[in-house]
């Protein structure tokens, strides 16, 4: 059963996360945002198209927290680099989770092209000023 006191404290937790995020190192904060995105996608998969609403709600909360972490980073680092790293790392990690947790097979060529995404994100970071 859903505890209403826990639901009411979620906005407080998000506000604390927002204040905390403005004081963090941008790269640590980017790592947290990537982890929250991966959690959000995993919960979305577990919601089975929002047929299981608790997992869907948790997915939305994870994405809100993800964007709260991502937004202050954009003040100090280039948006293209941040987005490439955030999305590329998220794709790579969620692909591995899909393979090992959700038992979704990928062949070698698909894994190769996913690795190219990661190489591109790293290349952007290494060549940006």
In short:
The chain has 129 residues and is mostly helical.
Count every beta strand, where a strand is a DSSP E run of 2 or more residues: 0
Quaternary class: single chain
Structural class: mainly alpha
Biggest sheet, in brief?
Answer: none
Provide the succession of SSEs: HHHHH
Give the mean pLDDT. 85
What gross morphology would you assign? flat
Termini separation: 51 Å
Strand content: under 5%
* Rg value: 16 Å
Total number of helices: 5
- Helix content class: over 70%
Sequence stretches where pLDDT stays below 50 over 5 or more residues: none
Task: Explain this structure.
- The protein is mostly helical and 129 residues long.
- It is flat.
- The model has no long low-confidence stretch (mean pLDDT 85).
List the helices and strands and how they pair.
Elements: H1 4-21, H2 26-46, H3 53-73, H4 79-100, H5 108-127
Helix pairs in contact: 1-3, 2-3, 2-4, 4-5
